[in-house]
Amino acid sequence: MHATGAARPRTMLVKHADVLVTMDGARRELTDAGLFIEGNRIVAVGATSELPSTADEVLDLRGHLVMPGLVNTHHHMYQSLTRAVPAAQNAELFGWLTSLYKIWAHLTPEMIEVSTLTAMAELLLSGCTTSSDHLYIYPNGSRLDDSIAAAARIGMRFHASRGSMSVGQKDGGLPPDSVVEREDDILADTQRLIETYHDEGRYAMLRVVVAPCSPFSVSRDLMRESATLARQYGVSMHTHLAENVNDVAYSRERFGMTPAEYAEDLGWVGADVWHAHCVQLDASGIALFARTRTGVAHCPCSNMRLASGIAPIRRMRDAGVPVGLGVDGSASNDGAHLVGEARQAMLLQRVGFGPDAMSAREALELATLGGAAVLGRDDIGALAPGMAADFVAFDLRQASFAGALHDPVAALVFCAPPQVSLSVINGRVVVRDGRLATLELAPLLERHNALARSLGEAARAS
Ligand SMILES: [Zn+2]
Question: The Amidohydrolase-related domain covers which part of the protein (predicted)?
């Protein structure tokens, strides 16, 4: 008998994974297991023997660990053009920013698109399937549309944050006056982006986020009006907060409040808000965030690189603050690897708070369920029926895992961070056999490196 009428969704069967980490309510880890997928969603998870035996595409993942795609909650992808810049290699936040703003002032739309593709390629190969990006500098006609185009091209699930800076040096802010925008323009462009691109539906591949850069680069008014705009459209809000002691000192001096008090005063707390860093969030700030379900993007590598301190993630988690992981921009964490970030999160909590401060499994939970919660999503971060078909596979048969296969899940975090062999996003294969399936990496990197060179030359000539 032939089916007629509407086409049935394409199916995919994953079978024989050595271990499948579900991150479901019971945190089940299944052996010789797999998934059955229809279109862009998971319909069955279980032992290989319990799944259908065939599908349009069958992936035999013997020798692999399969887990939900990782979620990155904080990044500045354009910074991939300015990694390891000598003048910014050994500075803390404010000094680091001051030496880089001058270079970033020469960014072009092509640089935004190409660097976003490069940053996404790097993240995808590390196991990340959903990322946010915080773009807050728009020189020379650059637009958030340039990043959005990149995400669509490479096939990554994307939360595009419309960042902004409006208080330049002449008004007591940190950025040079040449890279700040007028507040009316910022709000109008943010509204345009939401209306053009934001998808609030389940399995959305693209959401828009309202994201003034930080308390030291925008005004109180812009923070308040951004919150009003975001809530009018039901989109999330994101900014940097309490990153280091100078950031806290600026807040006390200029606003007479701690960063957490300032956020509360502006309406910047709630389940629709997440703040990057919060290294210096105090006890009352942690209680406030827990009470209001305000999220935190923890970026351990960046915090170490800029010597910002050790974020009190153990205390936040115990209090009930939603916490996800972020690699942060490539100029303050020059290696964006999300499993690597989970590893550093685990290790850094131990440095700060003792050997039992974070387990490998909790670090993986931050990287999946934690990130999903922070981004306001309940359709990613776990492998269960009804969830989006976003999953990755790591080959356990490599030297770095040798001797650790009695506990491959912990090994993923304890051993050297691996590259994925497979990544599926929204039911589509984006990485196959360890290689990007959606674009050619070599010419992309060649173009990226040429643009990085010309960006450096433009900055030196100015
Ligand atoms: Zn950042």
Answer: 65-430
The alpha carbon of 429 and the centre of ligand 1 are apart by a number of angstroms equal to 29
pTM of the model: 0.97
What's the gap in Å between 240 CA and the centre of ligand 1?
Answer: 6
Query: What separation in Å is there between the alpha carbon of 100 and the centre of ligand 1?
Result: 13
Contact 77, 330 (CB under 8 A): yes
CA of 243 to the centre of ligand 1 (A): 9
Looking at residue 4, its pLDDT comes to 54
**CA gap 117, 332 in Å, rounded:** 18
Task: Out of 2.60.120.230, 3.40.50.720, 2.30.40.10, 2.30.30.40, select the CATH number for domain 11-68+380-436.
Answer: 2.30.40.10
pLDDT of 3 > 70? The answer is: no
pLDDT in tens, 105-145: 999 999 999 999 999 999 999 999 999 999 999 999 999 99
